[in-house]
Amino acid sequence: MESVMVGNAIKVAFILLITLTVIIPCLEAGIAEFDNFLKIQAEEAYKIALDTYVPTPEDVVNELNLHVHLALENSTATRRRELGQKKLKGPCKASNPIDSCWRCNADWANDRKKLAKCSKGFGRRAVGGLDGPFYVVTDNSDDDMVNPKPGTLRHAVVQDGPLWITFERSMIIELRQELLISSNKTIDGRGANVQIKNGGGLTMQYVNNVIIHGIRVKNIVPKDGGMIRDSYNHFGFRTRSDGDAISLFGASNIWIDHVSLSNSGDGLIDVIMGSTGITISNCHMTKHNDVSTYLIHSYELLTLVMLFGANEHHEQDRIMQITVAFNHFGQGLIQRMPRCRFGFVHVLNNDYTHWLMYAIGGSSNPTILSQGNRFIAPNDENAKTITHRDYATPEEWKNWQWQSDMDLFMNGAKFIGSGAPIQLTYNKGLIMKPRDGTHVSRLTRHAGALDCFVGKPC
């Protein structure tokens, strides 16, 4: 009852904040002119965010842990049956609950929309373009920002209504400016090697219900901005983009799955300004370039990873709820996996290998629940600590709820917890502990964009 009352109080507070929030010109959002169309979009986005917010996040945590248990049990049973046979039947072994929902279906190409039923965690409501037609991208060009050419990705993502976007063939898309994705879209790269590369990144601003799946996003750079269409009925002047690979600004019900990300001008994934209901799963994040000693000390020049909440004054991020699950954080990453302000972040069954400064950080009193992850610390004795807190004295941050539960610590990795234990008072009296970090190899073995071929399991 107490958690429900707290959740309702937060909703009331944010209703009061909406008016103040939406009348401020959003230069941080890349908007040069905050016109009436965008004001209405912002108001609607915050209302959706409030409806998306879960006052008892422990219920979502418990449900996801239950699905992990079931997926691993089914996978183990399948492996035992295979061991009793002379020959393995097919290469597909899906161990996590998202992959087991769709990945071993050889007929996935004729049943693409089954994916929409597979999301878990806080982004579980994202169905993307489930209720719309298919749109096949046939052209990798990106020449017109205001009136994009039919057949291009930019034309697809601004169409009115839900769309399930696929690709005719493998292609490299070099975006001349950031790509503004409208609500109710799925970008589905399965069956092709789709690379968003050497140009602008993907932006979801004041939108709801988007799935990004099965693409590669790399070498993203800042772009100067200009007139860019953001929906079927609107375009406007955008300021210079930051160079984030994927940016969420006031977005709700977003699922990013099986995406490979590397090398961006700023961060790989930013989630800010009242975004909530987010799941980031099965992604592979890395820095491909060699890392010199000079660059390690000048870490601003290297890839930062995930920023959840951009400013201590953005009180709307108190309703931010994000699931980070089954991802592989690979070589050459510095910090921010994630870096959080406010909100509730569930970090579950991820593989952290050799960060350069720290893995999980934050300020402004976020709640961070780390469960069943594997943390392999770097050899640097000064970087063994997983956690990092900013802009607060130990007397202040000692009350922040940062909790480690059944994580696996290797090579001297250490998690410094704080605050009162997170009370996981589950529905129906069911207490479902997470799978511990020893299972991470199985749960994350297929992280990143998959090589999917028609007629075969991915």
From TrEMBL:
**Subcellular compartments:** Secreted, Cell wall
Pathway annotation from the record: Glycan metabolism; pectin degradation; 2-dehydro-3-deoxy-D-gluconate from pectin: step 2/5
Q: Which Pfam families match?
A: Pec_lyase_N, Pectate_lyase_4
Q: Which residues form the Pectate lyase domain?
A: 170-381
Task: Write down the SUPFAM superfamilies for this protein, in alphabetical order.
Answer: Pectin lyase-like
The yes or no answer to whether the keyword RNA-binding is present is: no
Comment on bound cofactor: Binds 1 Ca(2+) ion. Required for its activity.
Annotated membrane-spanning segments are none
| Major site of localization recorded for this protein | secreted
Domain of life, per UniProt, equals: Eukaryota
GO terms for MF: metal ion binding; pectate lyase activity
Does this UniProt record's set of keywords contain Glycoprotein?
yes
The family database entries (PANTHER family) matched by this protein are listed as: PECTATE LYASE (PTHR31683:SF184), PECTATE LYASE 18-RELATED (PTHR31683)
What family, per the record?
Answer: Belongs to the polysaccharide lyase 1 family.
Q: What protein name applies here?
A: Pectate lyase
The scientific name of the source species is Mucuna pruriens (Velvet bean)
